[in-house]
Write a sequence for this structure.
């Protein structure tokens, strides 16, 4: 099972990197006279109402569908791991301050904040990605903090302190490996949440500009074509679901594997 | 959209049957009786007063509830309404004779003073009427007898009667004076003498109308109309299909294929008084150069775009007037206006004459999820072929509309405006007057000059062949200077479940008065 999941995600990553080169047509090339037609030998997944090849747009759209969520996951993981370790290890006012900030962040409706950033303030897509990374961080901080608090009381951590090791060394060299399974699973979950959320923003017309080959945008632009070429809207949904499910399941499997095999 | 007038509603740049029930209980939709129509709009009506709700949904209801002094007949020609007749003693004045015995639905007699007041209030700055721009040539309106109303204009205006058919809606003076700012709101409501009366008006839970049995004219066949709002087009279609809703006018030619095949639903298309176009902001960077504007006009495949957007239920626009207005003015003798046919070589040649021979890049905002998004994608792809890169910037539709109406950073805007009368004078000042180039105006190109304003003033009082010549000259100038690129005219449509029938046309004032239970 894990092999299948890895294969799916590896293929997705491959297409994300080279999808534009693999596309049989220019994903932006229009043929208004052709319009929306169903699958054929020339257009495997048919065309949209502007006559653009859906298969080519799917391949070209894999980049934005995967790249931005990867950036969000990386940002979230680095931030939440660092801050969670710090709060859980240092405790005291550092922990109190950080947890109140986390409480405040939890009070904010994430999706609405993103809509405001993009739609009202005109912040642009890059700012939305940054905002999403920040918004996903508090939840992971709490998890990492609680795990760190448990680990810091164990004998190996006490021994490290007794030996006079610097706190940063204890946190990142000794505690972090023991909470790594959760960090890895959390990173994959962040990737999934980011991918679905960013696709949702695009579906709402608040993400990338019209015409960009983006899976969320494709669903929005082509949902009126279900009677002419359902694949134009269904295919990106299938891919989003497949990749999100694979990443979630892989996160679970990795957590189990790393937890069993983890060492102190 | 095609209902009465309502241009403001259709900035799409800017910009919903008693179930058939054959044989059985004679019930339709959610209505309890066969003569109850459940209607749906795609946007909620916001006021029962045109002064504060000059949009498609609001005005459709207003014209079912409030009488106008004149109406438009099936050909768009002014016809008697509350006024049984009128004379024009001088070129700049009208005298209307009021219909006798008309009462508001509360039983109060409708007087000449009410009629005069209902026009004058649009001139009152305290009212801040959205219809004020229709009556800029009105100097005063006064009751000059028990059944006479005199209107004095600042100058002759042949369009006055036509615009009055939409906007001179008569309300009681007492009510209007008590509520200058909030007449028509859910809290205040309105009082009319029209074929229907308002039973309920809510911004959130809908509107209910009932037949005015004391109406002076032909009684509506419908006893009750329940109006709801369904924002999503596909949800609305499903509601009509299921019989939850009996009728709607919120369907576009692009969606015609989805509606025409619906079982138990009849869809009727008719010519809309609209014009879809691109406005090029002549004060913005490269667009200042007429050669750039001509290059853009040549580079866009307007025929393909027209076919895409109208689904074959429309036509390529060749000049900047709605088709019914062109027909009303010229008949079959339409002049050949200068054209910029789709021709990439000609586009490149024009661009070579400009200060931007290699093209340029420009940011272009658009409204997400609207026809404008589709149009601008097609336009951007066409312009890329001559080196002009449009960076499309998505905006929520409301934000985009507000931004365009504020004339904020205008560049290339798609708009689709529907007008209410057959008068070109309704359109041209919107397009090229300097006044309309100010925020809240519809001159999105910013094109205009003192000389053009003077010509528009002259046109306002011109008649006959002189009028045709002046309109032709202005349209020719627009075609040559390209502040606008006309794209297409589309049809309007209504969909009704089989339990109802309606004979609808371009100048139909209210769907509710012309809809009747099938077989009645």
């Amino acid at each position: 099972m894990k092999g299948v999941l890895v294969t799916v995600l590896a293929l997705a990553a491959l297409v994300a990197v080279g999808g534009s080169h693999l596309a049989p047509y220019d994903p932006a090339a229009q043929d208004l006279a052709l319009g929306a037609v169903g699958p054929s030998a020339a257009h495997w997944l048919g065309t949209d109402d502007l006559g653009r090849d859906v298969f080519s747009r799917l391949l070209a759209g894999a980049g934005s569908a995967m790249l931005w969520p990867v950036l969000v996951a990386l940002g979230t993981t680095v931030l939440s791991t660092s801050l969670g370790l710090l709060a859980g290890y240092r405790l005291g006012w550092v922990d109190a301050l950080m947890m109140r900030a986390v409480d405040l962040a939890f009070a904010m409706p994430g999706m609405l904040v993103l809509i405001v950033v993009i739609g009202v303030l005109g912040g642009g897509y890059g700012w939305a990605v940054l905002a999403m990374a920040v918004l996903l961080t508090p939840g992971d901080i709490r998890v990492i903090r609680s795990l760190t608090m448990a680990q810091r009381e164990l004998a190996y951590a006490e021994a490290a302190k007794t030996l006079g090791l610097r706190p940063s060394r204890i946190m990142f060299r000794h505690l972090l490996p023991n909470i790594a399974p959760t960090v890895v699973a959390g990173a994959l979950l962040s990737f999934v949440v980011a991918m679905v959320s960013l696709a949702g923003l695009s579906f709402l017309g608040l993400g990338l500009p019209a015409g960009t080959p983006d899976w969320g945008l494709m669903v929005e632009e082509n949902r009126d074509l279900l009677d002419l070429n359902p694949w134009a809207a269904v295919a990106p949904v299938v891919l989003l679901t497949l990749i999100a499910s694979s990443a979630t399941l892989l996160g679970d499997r990795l957590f189990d594997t790393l937890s069993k095999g983890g060492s102190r | 959209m095609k209902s009465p007038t309502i241009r403001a509603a259709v900035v799409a740049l800017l910009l919903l049957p008693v179930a058939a029930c054959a044989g059985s209980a004679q019930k339709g939709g959610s209505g309890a009786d066969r003569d109850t129509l459940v209607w749906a709009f795609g946007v909620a009506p916001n006021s029962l007063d045109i002064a504060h709700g000059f949009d498609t949904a609001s005005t459709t209801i207003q014209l079912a509830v409030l009488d106008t002094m004149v109406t438009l007949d099936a050909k768009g020609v002014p016809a008697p309404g509350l006024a049984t007749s009128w004379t024009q003693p001088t070129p700049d004045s009208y005298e209307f004779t009021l219909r006798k015995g008309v009462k508001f639905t509360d039983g109060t007699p409708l007087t000449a003073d009410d009629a005069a007041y209902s026009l004058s209030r649009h001139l009152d700055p305290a009212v801040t009427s959205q219809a004020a721009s229709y009556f800029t040539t009105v100097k005063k309106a006064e009751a000059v007898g028990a059944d006479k109303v005199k209107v004095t204009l600042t100058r002759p205006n042949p369009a006055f009667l036509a615009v009055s058919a939409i906007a001179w809606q008569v309300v009681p003076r007492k009510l209007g004076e008590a509520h200058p700012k909030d007449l028509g709101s859910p809290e205040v409501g309105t009082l009319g003498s029209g074929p229907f009366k308002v039973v309920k008006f809510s911004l959130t839970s809908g509107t209910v109308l009932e037949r005015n049995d004391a109406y002076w004219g032909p009684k509506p066949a419908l006893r009750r109309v329940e109006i709801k709002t369904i924002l999503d087009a596909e949800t609305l279609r499903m509601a009509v299909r299921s019989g939850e809703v009996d009728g709607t006018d919120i369907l576009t030619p692009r969606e015609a294929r989805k509606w025409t095949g619906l079982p138990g639903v009849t869809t009727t298309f008719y010519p809309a008084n609209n014009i879809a176009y691109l406005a090029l902001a002549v004060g913005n960077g490269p667009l200042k150069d007429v050669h750039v504007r001509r290059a853009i006009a040549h580079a866009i495949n307007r025929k393909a775009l027209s076919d895409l957007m109208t689904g074959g239920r429309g036509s390529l626009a060749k000049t900047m007037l709605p088709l019914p207005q062109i027909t009303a003015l010229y008949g079959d003798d339409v002049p050949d206006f200068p054209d910029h046919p789709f021709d990439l070589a000609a586009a490149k040649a024009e661009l070579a004459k400009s200060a931007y021979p290699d093209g340029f890049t420009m940011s272009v905002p658009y409204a997400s999820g609207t026809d404008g998004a589709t149009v601008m994608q097609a336009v951007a792809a066409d312009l890329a072929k001559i080196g002009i890169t449009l960076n499309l910037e998505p905006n929520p539709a409301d934000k985009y509309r507000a931004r365009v109406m504020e004339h904020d950073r205008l560049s290339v805007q798609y708009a689709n405006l529907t007008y209410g009368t057959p008068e070109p004078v309704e359109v041209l000042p919107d397009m090229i007057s300097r006044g309309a180039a100010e925020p809240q105006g519809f001159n999105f190109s910013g094109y205009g000059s003192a000389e053009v304003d003077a010509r528009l003033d002259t046109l306002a009082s011109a008649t006959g062949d002189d009028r045709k010549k002046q309109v032709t000259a202005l349209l020719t100038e627009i075609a040559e200077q390209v502040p606008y690129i006309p794209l297409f005219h589309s049809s309007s449509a209504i969909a009704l479940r089989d339990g109802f029938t309606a004979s609808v046309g371009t100048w139909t004032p209210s769907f509710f008065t012309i809809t009747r239970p099938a077989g009645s």
About this structure: DSSP finds 16 helices and 20 strands in chain B. Residues 280 and 412 of chain B are 5 Å apart (CA to CA).
